[in-house]
Amino acid sequence: MSDHYDVAVIGSGPGGYSAAIRSGQLGKSVICIEKCGEDQTPILGGTCLNVGCIPSKALLDSSYEYHKAINQSSDHGIKINDISLDLSQMLTRKEKVVDDLTKGVSGLFKLNKVKSLKGFAKIKKDLSIEVTDEEGSLNLITADNIVLATGSKPAELDFSPTDQKSIITSKEALSLKQIPSQIIIIGSGAIGLEIGSIWSRLGSKVILLEELEQLLPQADRQVSTSAMKIFKNQGLDIRLGAKIESAEKKEEKVLIRFREESLEADKLIVAAGRVSYFEDLLDEGIDLELDSNGSINVNQFCETNLKGLYAIGDVVRGPKLAHKASEEGIMVAENIAGLNSSLDYELIPFVIYTHPEIAWVGKSEDQAKKMGIDYESASFPFSLNGRSLANKEEQGFVKMIVDKKKDAILGVHIIGSNASELIQQAIIAIKTELSAEKLGSLIFSHPTQSEAIKETASLINSKAIHISNRKRKK
Ligand code: NAI
Fold first, then answer.
1. Global confidence as pTM
2. Which residues does a 6 A CB cutoff place in the pocket of ligand 1?
3. Full DSSP string of 313-361
4. Which of 37, 121, 202, 425 is the most exposed place for a label (fewest CB within 10 A)?
5. By three-state DSSP, how is residue 264 classified?
6. Domain locations in the chain as residue ranges
7. pLDDT (tens digit, 9 = 90+) per residue, 301-343?
8. Which residue of 167, 198, 211, 256 sits with most ligand 1 atoms within 8 Å of its CB, as the best mutation to test the pocket?
9. Does residue 235 contact residue 247 with C-beta atoms inside 8 Å?
10. Is 446 annotated in the active site?
């Protein structure tokens, strides 16, 4: 079989499926090629839907419900006797969520006339695509435009190669059939903190080993300091400056050595970052440029050095985030269709779905300082926000960095429940150049946690009502 398309997308994660659907909407003939999983089932939706963002959020939610039932129900005057955990049901619910969403991608493909092809794609020297399906038969595809959206894979550490049993990645950590007594996680980034939170809430003793001296160095320092305190109080044992020297398997356990200490765990989870994945994708002799991190080199429009070949999402530079990938997919599809689309890479939100959540967009205080910007910062704690108190969610704060002269919002940093939802307001405010004063003067509904954003903006101009305006930093 040989088929020709306007657009061929390789990979069906948030980047790939968005590129394919948008191309379909714009009237292009489009095919999306996705390889099968180890058990030969299709994996539409990529890492995010199958083994990343979505299943982790399902388990974060279930584990938090369990944690609340045990620790908070009595505060609400609710007596629950005999709480017990059905891990198998928790995993079944997670799998159903994943299943529904992956089926949803398939439905959206049909709706937008995207042809879906199962198989492993290899790009030949003439930029045709050879696709090998589960039975080993070959399909030859040609396309005017090819979008590479093959994603990323967990970074492997030489001293602790994963074995899918006791030394594992986040993928296996989201499907453990028993609650391990002791878990060690290498890395305290988004994955380490989210996976650590899940299993800690379900009863595991979790130790996170982080080689850096600061937790979440990309976050605003005030947020990362506060997060460190909160997570420690929750029982997450986070050890900074912990450079591991070795990890060895000892019967069913893993033995870790760092500094003069040795630690034993049932599971070692490697969460030390992810690297772009495009193994066996390109035939020999294809002169595709890579960048210094080993990702596919692209310009701001996700164009590679080869005409008609684009690359988006985790396989290229920039943060490995699903929402960045999908917007790149949409941009590429629109530009292929002759529209003039671009992205504002300065305004990518970051979220960590712990409890409380952490979210930020724009510049941190350290960045503003480094750039020599004459800025002001203010923060408003959720402990002074009525809705947060009513919800027993008083931990954390909203912090705003504002250009002093222009009153322009440069960055918003939140640690608190629903930070992932609240941060969208900051994106809109920054993008539409809303001044802190204007944001603070809008009528927000009461009682809501969003009022903490309004109050932070008001604090910048000494107009806050529920906090002393003297608390504002100069
Ligand atoms: P990460 O890069 O965010 O964090 C990895 C951490 O591991 C770093 O702090 C690093 O210093 C540490 N590390 C590396 N090698 C180490 C070693 N040998 N010993 C001790 N510590 C070591 O990567 P992570 O958490 O694995 O996530 C991968 C990607 O997926 C990231 O780009 C992240 O943004 C994304 N992601 C985003 C999520 C979200 O937005 N909520 C959730 C999960 C992943």
1. 0.96
2. 157, 186-192, 194, 209-212, 242-244, 271-274, 319-321, 351-353
3. GGGBSS---HHHHHHHHHHHHHHHTT------GGG--EEE-SSSEEEEE
4. 37
5. strand
6. 3-153+275-345, 167-272, 356-460
7. 999 999 999 999 999 999 999 999 999 999 999 999 999 999 9
8. 211
9. no
10. yes
pLDDT higher than threshold 50 for residue 442: yes
What the block records as the tokens of 413 is 């940093």
Q: What is the CA radius of gyration of the chain?
A: 24
The architecture of the domain spanning 167-272 is: 3-Layer(bba) Sandwich (3.50)
CATH class assigned to 3-153+275-345: alpha beta
Check if 3-153+275-345 and 356-460 are the same fold. Answer: no
Atom number, ligand 1, closest to the C-alpha of residue 52: 43
Nearest to 247 by CA among 187, 308, 336, 330: 187
- CA 173/CA 265 separation, integer angstroms: 14
CATH assignment, 356-460: 3.30.390.30
Q: Cα separations (Å) of 210 from 199, 254, 259, 423, 461?
A: 18, 17, 13, 27, 39
156 with 319: CB under 8 angstroms? no
51 neighbors 154 (Cβ within 8 angstroms): no
